[in-house]
Each structure stands twice: as structure tokens, then as C-alpha cells.
Write a structure and sequence with these properties.
The protein is mostly helical. It is 63% helix and 0% strand. The longest helix has 45 residues.
């Protein structure tokens, strides 16, 4: 069925790659993996520094209230903020390690691969 909000749409479903052709995805290379790993590692380091900064800020500013509900909500919000920042740093660190391991795997495959000597005759 056509998208009613877009008058120029077609009734054909999009593929998982969007509008790109099915054979246009470039295979991963060692250089692309290493640069991606360095970028993800940079984001992970920045989020780690942010995690330390947020933790220090929360430690230096205790909650001043006699109301139990206020204390519980403030503790929950602080825990949620710390969890989100730490989770983001962990995800980027995990991606960085994975990309670096992929680069090593591609490098080993490239070094071990023997040249094709068959001429196909």
C-alpha cells in the first residue's frame, strides 16, 4: 500500500538496506575497521570521563531533604543518569574492541590467503 503522507511514494516495500542497491555494500577493510575502532574508542573515553564527572558531581552535592519520597526519587534519577552514561560508554567500548578484533581477523585472513594458481583451463 502506498504511503498516504508522501504523494511520490510507491507501493513497493523497502529492502533492509533502504534505497541502496543490493550489491553496493563494500566489504569491510582493515583500515575501515581500525578507523571505526578509534572513533568508537574516542567516544568511549569521552563517556567514561563524563561518567566520572557525573559521579563526582553527585557525590559533592548530597540530597538535602526530610521527605522520603524526594530522597527516593532523587536517588532513582541519579541512578538512572549514571546508568545511561555508563551504558553508553560500555557500548562504545565494546564496539571498539569488536572492530579492532575484526581488523585483526581480516589481516590474518589476508596474510594466510594463498594466491589462486589455477588458471581454470
Amino acid at each position: 500500500m502506498a504511503d498516504l503522507t508522501n504523494p511520490n511514494s510507491t507501493s513497493q516495500p523497502l529492502s533492509s538496506t533502504g534505497n541502496a542497491a543490493s550489491g553496493s555494500v563494500a566489504p569491510p577493510t582493515v583500515l575501515r575497521c581500525v578507523t571505526g575502532s578509534l572513533m568508537a574508542g574516542g567516544f568511549a573515553a569521552a563517556l567514561y570521563a563524563l561518567t566520572l564527572s557525573v559521579a563526582q558531581t553527585f557525590a559533592n552535592k548530597p540530597i538535602h531533604s526530610d521527605n522520603t519520597t524526594v530522597i527516593n526519587i532523587a536517588a532513582a534519577v541519579r541512578t538512572l543518569v549514571m546508568g545511561i552514561v555508563a551504558l553508553g560508554g560500555g557500548v562504545f567500548a565494546f564496539a571498539s574492541v569488536g572492530l579492532m578484533l575484526l581488523a585483526v581477523q581480516l589481516l590474518i585472513q589476508k596474510l594466510v590467503k594463498k594466491p589462486d594458481t589455477s588458471s581454470g583451463v
